[in-house]
Amino acid sequence: MAGPAASGGDVVTGAGFAVRPARAGVADTVVAGAVGPVAGESPRRRAWAAAAAVVDPEVPVLTIADLGVLRSVEVSDDGAVRVAITPTYSGCPAVETIRDDVVDALRREGFAEVRVDLVLSPAWTTDGISEDGRRKLREYGIAPPTGRSRFGEARPRGPVPVEISVPCPRCGSLDTRELSRFGSTACKALYECRACSEPFDHFKVH
Q1: CB 111 within 8 A of CB 79
Q2: Taking every annotated instance into account, which residue ranges of this chain make up the domain PaaD zinc beta ribbon (predicted)?
Q3: Residue spans of alpha helices (H) in 24-129
Q4: What is the Cα–Cα distance from 193 to 184, expressed in whole angstroms?
Q5: In the chain, what are the domains?
Q6: pLDDT > 70 in the chain, percent
Q7: Could you read off the pLDDT of 26-65 as tens digits, one per residue?
Q8: How many Å separate Cα 12 from the centre of its chain?
Q9: Strands 142-143 and 199-203
């Protein structure tokens, strides 16, 4: 559900991203959280579908749309495409690969002029991972993030919060423990399941 209008005429989409009204020369914009694209319906929807299908090089079971890395896709009146992406963390080594893959995907779709912008604010959080993306992670053997990010919010006063147990994506047991704060990538932690003795990655909440 779309949130309230932001200051200055901006609108807040269902994914929580502020998007300014269409600029002169911009025919159409698709933003994260908008209604899904329909192939062939319009240039913007074809562009969104092509960019959204790009897979994350570090977690190939997810697309950049599943992950919430894809922020928006604009198509100008002259057919030029401008894409906004946000890395999962500053300095992510996969950013250049994602940028190149988005450009290649859009050019294969027939868009000759493509620009990919790196947007660092608002920062990416695990809240951006879609429900379908979380399902794919579990099926792939990676525990999706538990709870919601508190990025940018003041830390509440009161009792120390209790950490939520991370369920094993293989057997579902809650009898798990963290082995290392960093797993196969910086945004994941390495866990072990005491029930089935299998190690697994867990997407950290951030």
Answers
A1: yes
A2: 164-204
A3: 43-52, 64-67, 95-108
A4: 17
A5: 25-118 (3.30.300.130), 129-146+165-203 (no CATH)
A6: 71
A7: 555 555 655 444 444 689 999 999 999 999 998 899 999 9
A8: 17
A9: parallel
Calpha distance 93→57 (Å, rounded):
10
Residue 63 three-state SS: strand
pTM of the model: 0.69
Sequence-separated (6 or more) residues with CB below 8 Å from residue 117? 82, 83, 84, 85
> Would you state the pLDDT for residue 38?
44
Size of the chain, expressed as the number of residues it contains = 206
**Order of strands across the sheet that contains 142-143:** 142-143, 199-203, 188-193, 176-180
Across the chain, what does the average pLDDT equal? 78
Q: Which residue has the higher pLDDT, 149 or 117?
A: 117
Predicted local distance difference test score (pLDDT) of residue 183:
79
Task: Give one DSSP letter per residue of 148-165, joined into a string.
Answer: ---TTSPPPPSSPPPPPP
Give strand ranges (E) for the chain. 11-12, 18-19, 26-31, 70-76, 81-85, 114-118, 142-143, 176-180, 188-193, 199-203
pLDDT digits (tens, 9 = 90+) for 72-86: 999 999 999 999 999
Residue holding tokens 């912008």? 117
Q: Which amino acid is at 90?
A: S
Cα–Cα distances (Å) from 171 to 17, 71, 182, 187, 195, in that order, read: 36, 34, 22, 23, 8
Residue type, 48: W
